[in-house]
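User: Just a sanity check before I run the rest of the batch. Below are the structure tokens for the first item. I only need the designed sequence back.
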């Protein structure tokens, strides 16, 4: 079988939080594919899509338990990560794990960097925006 690219992912979230995901993903330049009562879909330039369903059971998420730990979005530059930090701050979203910061332990060599910001969504899903490349 050929290397199968990621097609789409669906996240179940509190319906009241759907605008957060729409605003975050459009800030990251994903296009809105559709918005219906209780559901939104956003697509990347390369064809992947993320869907957020506002029909969720009343249980809390634990990203250190079984299942997805975090979702990372690739940034084109360190400045883009910093711009994302400003967006998060403007939306009262706290950054986690002393980020933004460089992670030399994740860099491939001394000329490269892994520069990240990590945060929780209103539904306690862990997300990352990361630049990986030349310093």
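Assistant: Here's the designed sequence for the first item:
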């Amino acid at each position: 079988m050929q290397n199968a690219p990621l097609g789409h992912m669906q996240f179940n979230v509190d319906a009241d939080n759907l605008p957060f995901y729409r605003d975050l993903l459009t800030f990251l330049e994903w296009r809105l594919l559709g918005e219906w009562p209780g559901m939104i879909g956003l697509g990347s330039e390369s064809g992947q899509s993320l869907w957020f369903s506002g029909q969720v059971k009343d249980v809390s998420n634990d990203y250190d338990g079984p299942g997805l730990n975090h979702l990372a979005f690739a940034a084109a530059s360190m400045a883009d990560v910093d711009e994302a930090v400003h967006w998060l701050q403007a939306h009262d979203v706290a950054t986690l794990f002393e980020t933004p910061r460089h992670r030399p332990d994740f860099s491939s060599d001394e000329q490269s960097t892994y520069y990240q910001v990590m945060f929780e969504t209103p539904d306690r899903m862990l997300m990352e925006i990361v630049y990986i490349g030349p310093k």
